[in-house]
Amino acid sequence: MFEIKKIKTNVAAIAGELVDIRRHLHAHPELSFEEEKTAAYISELLTSWGIEHQTNVAGHGITGLIKGRNPEKKVVALRADIDALPIAEENKVPYKSLNYGVMHACGHDVHTTCLLGAVKILNERKSDFEGTIKFIFQPAEEKLPGGAIKMIEAGVLENPRVDAILGQHVYPGLEVGKVGFCNGRYMASGDEINLFIRGKGGHAAMPNEIDDTVLAMAEIIVSLQSIVSRKSPPATPSVLSFGKVTAAGATNIIPSEVIVRGTFRTFDETWRVKAHWLIKETAVSVARAHGCTCEVVIDSGYPFLENNPEITGIARKAAEEYLGKENVVNLDIRMTAEDFAHFAQQVPACFYRLGTQNEASDITSGLHTPHFDVDEKSLETGTGLLVWESLQQLKL
After folding, report:
1. Residue 130 has what DSSP assignment?
2. Residue of 30, 89, 141, 339 with catalytic role
3. Residue 230 structural domain
């Protein structure tokens, strides 16, 4: 019989192993679609624990089943992402990245470690629960088209069919020992906007003889902002931001091409499609007014992530039981994107946040920064919580 007290005892018994696993992963990060050694390490651990699994799923993905009594009763999936980011780590820690320019700056080393710990505990006590746990170690969360959609296409949610799926993500804005939930819409869709503005370049002192691609670019960026401020549904959060402009001219040279790259994010698929059309129409028409052309290339990214009310309600209650109500908080929606959204579109899902902050130890840096780190007590919290939450999902 699984009880919270026993789970915490099980977790405490492997706490040192969890730290070792996380530090190994942190020291050996690999970029999206390149996670060969990471996957091999995960597979070696699972094999040493006697857990059958499938490797090379949609690239370097790994999946497997832990069957309890009456395994057909219900199937709950637990997902962790395994890739890292192209960031040079600046932390001075013994487990600092050995792969210069690559870093686990988004906590995927923590996600992977917690899932490994949960899988180990659940496998050792599989006679104590009914149903099946499907574990998913997913590659390439950080880079389009993302590993989630590839794993779904490979059938990871089938054979047996998954009834519910949980995802856990670190949150440096939340104190270690706490977790956060958001019911319903939680994270935005994320699309990459690429504008190629072209015209006759030339001497900046003779604008009458050229097409001012730089001026066209500036007016396009300003004009596009009205799409969000004047055209978007008032109740639907949207963001259109541009972060990179390449105009390789000089003080006295107007270039023949200017490239602009940015992102569009929102929470409504119908509006998302319309916004793409408006972006194209606006950019092309403004460029034409300046005697230029504008090629608009929109790479559709991850859809918006919606947490299922029932699954999220069960998960939140389980967290309150495991950690205490005072350690479970409400979260606001986020304009960041996450490819777990693809799973959430297919089956009822809950994606929640694991606190990793410790101000006393100066562990406060944000995600995707060279100083990001976590309080490793979060490994115990995350591991135990995955065990307890999955068991509660199996009960219903």
Report:
1. B
2. 141
3. 191-299
